């Protein structure tokens, strides 16, 4: 915290008044990313077509990752449990699980899809953004299109191997 205060040009007491612990500071850093993701998930849930809502969410999250490289870290890195992030985290996780369930219920999302597959997708997009920064958004859109084609229930590709991750890994790993 002392190093952060020095780099910010403020005293440690000022930093501690605003952020009593390092966890509170980290929560503040990621608050915007979580708020943005909650908005995307809420918008997707509002769509009366579950598959279209799911596709919208995947596309938007992929593009958000390329616009803000810390976006992926907000979800896949270790983040402390704080009241500031807990509500956003619960809303995001609940919304993602609901989108998956709704898309499966209407027969549009493949039966063997698990929410943790979204973490794999985010990791892949994050790698693209780092490798191709100039064309990251366009590359992410293309990858999202490939992923959505593979996620579709009518996809005729090979059967998926079992997921090494469970659904709880999607956000539990971030804790």
Automatic annotation (TrEMBL):
The keyword DNA-binding applies. Residues 1-37 form the HTH tetR-type domain. InterPro entries: Homeodomain-like_sf, HTH-type_TetR-like_transc_reg, HTH_TetR, Tet_transcr_reg_TetR-rel_C_sf, TetR_SbtR-like_C. Signal peptide: none annotated. It holds the Pfam family TetR_N. It comes from the Bacteria. Coiled coil: none annotated. This is HTH tetR-type domain-containing protein. The lineage of its organism: Bacteria, Bacillati, Actinomycetota, Actinomycetes, Micromonosporales.
């Amino acid at each position: 915290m002392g190093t952060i205060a020095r780099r910010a040009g403020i005293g440690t007491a000022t930093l501690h008044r605003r952020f009593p612990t390092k966890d509170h500071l980290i929560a503040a850093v990621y608050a915007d990313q979580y708020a943005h993701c909650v908005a995307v998930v809420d918008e997707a849930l509002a769509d009366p077509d579950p598959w279209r809502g799911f596709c919208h969410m995947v596309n938007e999250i992929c593009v958000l990752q390329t616009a803000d490289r810390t976006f992926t870290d907000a979800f896949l890195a270790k983040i402390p449990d704080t009241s500031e992030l807990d509500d956003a985290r619960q809303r995001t996780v609940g919304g993602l699980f609901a989108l998956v369930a709704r898309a499966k219920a209407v027969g549009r999302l493949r039966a063997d899809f698990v929410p943790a597959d979204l973490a794999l997708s985010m990791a892949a997009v994050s790698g693209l953004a780092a490798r191709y920064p100039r064309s990251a958004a366009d590359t992410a859109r293309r990858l999202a299109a490939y992923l959505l084609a593979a996620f579709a229930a009518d996809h005729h590709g090979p059967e998926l191997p079992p997921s090494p991750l469970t659904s709880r890994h999607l956000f539990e790993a971030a804790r």
